[in-house]
Specification:
By secondary structure, the protein is mostly helical. It has 13 helices and no strands. Helix 1 packs antiparallel against helix 13, helix 2 packs across helix 3 and helix 5 runs antiparallel to helix 6. One of its GO terms (cellular component) is plasma membrane. Its main location: membrane.
Length: 326
């Protein structure tokens, strides 16, 4: 219990620091949403102070000194009320996030879990069959695929599988004639549109999981407890999974916690290339439009998800390796 209490205290402290930084960072950016709106209006003539005040009131720009804004922001965090989006006015921030969140979870979340499980299992098999073709093939393939950045792989797949072969749609989360609904037709259409960006994320992330698990497990195969288990006549699969892989998976588990926490942020480059309306696409537009309420809500979601994921991984560390409790 002391181990969990210590980790929980660190989690709360880190969460407060992240919330405070989330409040300060958008305000350190040059310019403001009001200036962007005035720049469009100034083409028709000078903008008066009354017009500027009206724009600020319409956008809901926070007033008062920095401390008053901070207190109001903390109240918004507790009540989950982040106001109206500047970029997508008059839609609320909660409404926009609610629309984009399912697409991101479907695309990035599911693919991240599949890539981690598949890459870890392949890494275990490659390490157990080291110095054979079963080791060389996934290792070389993983090294080759991991060298390509997300956006480059996305562009290649979009060009060949989308524009040349016409196997997959080139943009959007569903067809132009479909409307979001809990129906079989819409689900199939949404999955079909998500296949190409999902394949991009899977190909570019799978190699890292394979190489990480393979290299970590190579180091544990020479330990005494693995040799002792083999000398006792245990089956190879039992030794590989319950002895070698259990201890070697800890570094991969840390990376999985970070990746799982980052799921909420979406994959900005991939979503931009495919025009996929997820959280990453929303975040990009909020930064371009200097949309403080939307930016703060998205940054807060990403921060909290990463912290929660790391907290869960810390607890799992204590279960998988009791030595870490000390």
């Amino acid at each position: 219990m002391r181990y969990i209490a210590r980790k929980l205290g660190l989690f709360v402290l880190t969460l407060w620091a992240a919330i405070t930084l989330n409040f300060l960072l958008p305000r350190l950016m040059p310019g403001s949403p009001t200036d962007a709106a005035i720049a469009k209006l100034s083409q028709n003539g000078p903008v008066t102070a009354a017009t500027r005040a009206a724009i600020e009131a319409q956008l809901g720009v926070p007033g008062g000194n920095l401390w008053d804004q901070y207190v109001n922001y903390l109240h918004q965090v507790v009540t989950l009320d982040f106001g109206v989006s500047y970029t997508f006015y008059p839609q609320s921030v909660s409404e926009l996030i609610g629309q984009a969140f399912p697409y991101t979870v479907l695309l990035v979340g599911l693919v991240t879990v599949v890539a981690f499980v598949l890459g870890t299992l392949i890494g275990v098999f490659a390490a157990w069959r080291r110095n054979t073709w079963a080791d060389a093939l996934p290792t070389l393939s993983g090294s080759f695929l991991s060298t390509f950045p997300y956006f480059w792989t996305a562009l290649l797949l979009l060009f060949f599988l989308g524009y040349v072969l016409h196997w997959f749609p080139t943009s959007g989360a569903y067809g132009p004639t479909a409307s979001p609904a809990f129906s079989w037709d819409f689900t199939v259409d949404a999955l079909y549109h998500a296949l190409l960006p999902a394949l991009t994320i899977l190909l570019t992330s799978l190699g890292g999981w394979i190489l990480g698990m393979r290299n970590a497990m190579i180091g544990t195969l020479g330990d005494d407890y693995v040799t002792f288990a083999q000398a006792n006549g245990l089956k190879g699969g039992t030794v590989a999974i319950k002895y070698a892989a259990r201890n070697a998976i800890l570094p991969n588990l840390t990376g999985f916690g970070l990746a799982l926490g980052g799921v909420v942020g979406g994959s900005i480059l991939v979503e931009q290339v495919f025009g996929y309306p997820g959280i990453g696409y929303l975040l990009f537009n909020s930064v371009i439009g200097q949309d403080y309420p939307l930016m703060q809500a998205l940054f807060l979601m990403i921060t909290v998800s990463v912290l929660v994921a790391n907290f869960i991984v810390d607890i799992l560390y204590g279960v998988l390796d009791p030595r870490t409790r000390r």
